């Protein structure tokens, strides 16, 4: 009884507007979410991926792929115009499986065609990179080859709407060991802070991160001299 009475008396003025505000914020958020993640060729995101030459490996067939997504990217060993260079690790012979000039970007898939006919198929040799939104720059992962189409998957902040996870600076974060196995180090990247490391000097907190600029760290005052 008492509760009902209080609600009737106080709710309309004090809680009502807050509830309404909260509800409209939620609606706005869900409206933004519903637009699918997609690539944007004219946006600044390409600059990050274009700055590097990327590598992926097909362990089963012993093929190493080198990817050059843009004209401005470093060349592969297959030559200037080649976007996807497949090197047979047994023979060390390289073959173009995608040309920079024959690219097509549609939504989240970036295709690179070639002019070589696929034996036993009507299609040409080509590569297809499927992007998904991710928290780091990510790395291309080889998926499969089917009918001369070389498929890759790439989870990257570059494919996110509204630059959701875009850092100030990030660099490719994977290594190949001596056996040619690829190790993705992106799970080690700290998103919001850095790693607090031991330091002989007790008066400072030393933070480090790998492959990415340090995020915000709440206990550090930017205007003090304890920022590294
Ligand atoms: C792509 O991004 C640019 C800059 O961020 C923006 O001006 C443009 O409208 C976007 N295009 C599409 C198709 O989303
Ligand atoms: C790589 O070259 C070897 C030797 O010529 C060949 O047997 C093998 O099929 C080639 N691998 C691929 C994936 O084409
Ligand atoms: C690839 O290029 C060939 C001609 O070189 C063309 O016939 C074919 O339709 C292209 N494929 C795609 C998927 O763009
Ligand atoms: C198709 O077959 C020919 C002759 O066997 C060979 O020279 C060529 O490299 C093959 N092309 C592809 C894309 O495998």
Automatic annotation (TrEMBL):
PROSITE patterns: MRH. Pfam families: CIMR. One of its GO terms (cellular component) is plasma membrane. Residues 1-36 form the signal peptide. The keyword Disulfide bond applies. The keyword Transmembrane helix applies. SMART domains: CIMR (SM01404). It comes from the Eukaryota. Keywords: Disulfide bond, Membrane, Signal, Transmembrane, Transmembrane helix, Transport. This is MRH domain-containing protein.
């Amino acid at each position: 009884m008492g509760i009902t009475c209080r609600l009737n008396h106080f709710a309309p003025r004090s809680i009502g507007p807050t509830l309404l505000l909260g509800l409209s914020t939620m609606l706005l958020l869900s409206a933004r979410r519903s637009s699918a993640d997609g690539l944007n060729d004219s946006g600044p995101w390409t600059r990050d991926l274009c700055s590097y030459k990327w590598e992926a490996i097909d362990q089963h067939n012993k093929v190493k792929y080198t990817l050059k997504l843009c004209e401005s990217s470093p060349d592969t060993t297959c030559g200037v115009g080649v976007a996807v260079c497949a090197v047979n690790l047994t023979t060390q012979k390289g073959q173009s499986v995608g040309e920079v000039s024959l690219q097509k970007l549609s939504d989240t898939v970036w295709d690179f065609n070639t002019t070589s006919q696929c034996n036993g198929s009507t299609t040409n040799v080509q590569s297809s990179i499927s992007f998904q939104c991710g928290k780091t720059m990510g790395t291309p992962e080889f998926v499969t080859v089917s009918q001369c189409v070389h498929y890759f998957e790439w989870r990257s902040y570059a494919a996110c709407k509204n630059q959701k996870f875009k850092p100030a600076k990030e660099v490719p974060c994977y290594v190949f060991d001596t056996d040619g196995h690829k190790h993705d180090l992106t799970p080690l990247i700290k998103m919001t802070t850095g790693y607090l490391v031991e330091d002989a000097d007790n008066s400072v907190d030393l933070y480090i991160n790998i492959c990415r600029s340090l995020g915000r760290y709440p206990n550090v005052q930017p205007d003090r001299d304890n920022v590294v």
